[in-house]
Fold this sequence. Notes:
By secondary structure, this protein is of the alpha/beta class. Helix content is about 25%, strand content about 25%.
Amino acid sequence: MINSGVQLNSPLQGEIKIPGDKSITHRAIIFSALANGQSHIRNPLLSEDCMKTMQSFVDLGVTYQIDDDNNLVISSPGIDEFKHKEVTIDLGNSGTSLRLLTGLFASIDGLVVHITGDESLSKRPMKRVIKPLKLMGAKIDAQYHSGDDEYTLPMTIYGKSLRSINYEIKEASAQVKSSLIFAGLLNDQGVTLYQQAATRNHTEIMVNNLYADHVIVEKVNGQFKYTVKPINRFLPLTYSVPSDVSSAAFIIIHALLNKGSNIELNRVGLNPTRNAIINYINKVIDNDDVISIKNISVEHGETIGNIIVQYSSNHHGITIQKNDIPNIIDEIPILSVLLSQSKGESKIEHVNELIVKESNRLAKTIELLEYLNTTYDVIKNGDGDITLIINPDVNEWSSDSSLNEYKSIKPSLQRFIKQDKQNNEGIYRLQSEHDHRIAMSGYIASSVVNKPIQVIGDECIQTSFPTFKEIFDL
């Protein structure tokens, strides 16, 4: 936490190093730990989040070193040595660790794992993972909340051999899908999964890059079908992690909003299920000269490229449709900052999943919009779909006749916003609620509003972007 308010309204220039991709680093650590031998991970994200996954395997007998170039060297006795052990692991704030490792640990015969986490992680809903795993025969004890029919931490997993199932994943969640893929890779018969939305596919890409055709992806009757085949022997790997496009989004949007900025971000991951944020930023600026992508290549099945960005003064509103939400969900808070400085109305459909992120990320996003003094509304239809509307050109949002089926839920979200945000010096105090993306979005928002910000609990930024504060001299 900083002691006084700041405004990040200085331009950024030159080459800026973006840390390694968080999602890919988690998965590379997992596959390294499952193999008997030594693995090398180049450009890993050495954040609190990813190191929670690493520490989970250290508790099971895996060792690691960080070399002089900040690469991970992982030595593991292999998955067979994890059997019949009992450990207690603290996953801190890492939702990715929690969901991926639940499916993995539930499938290792004889392994007993007691899992805890911080206050935020202990509120994350786990029924979406536990339910299908129990259908596979998993034994998992978790805190049950009868009023919500939901499971949360603390949780104990009793690993065993699981059976195969055919299962339709209702949530547009890559973490749920990946958890069940790991379970399928470790049982005797695999698993068949169905999912309506196209979600992040790093797990499938890594599996098939390391072990050809062990996750077969097809489009069947409008759904994605994942046929997962078991892996009999895991092998050590050498893997280069691309830079994280979600982290890059904060730097890109800051550059777009601050005159004089001209930056280059190298080896950024451009996976089609992740780069929706780049596509939508391009729609907002609608100028091919502002953002350019060069040196596009493919490494380990992942597309990467160099992104060059300069300041732009011309932005306009856009609509983000429901089908694209799974691949841009994490970037909605920072994208909302950009849309608050754009001409015309923007609509972001089906933002429901924001409510169950590290914080109530929807409530925190509208708090950012209030800090930015931007007109907005949050509306919900009879099917429960929630849409966020942002329009900086009007003083008050008025109902659109095409949205008569929707009802505003803005007041119910505003009650989550703590009122005491401004001190006598006119500083806006933003509670991060342990949410790294909200903390960083708050800092970027400060560059375009005439009121310094103080982000309470900004140490959570270490979860995904350890060098963020260094880039901005915070």
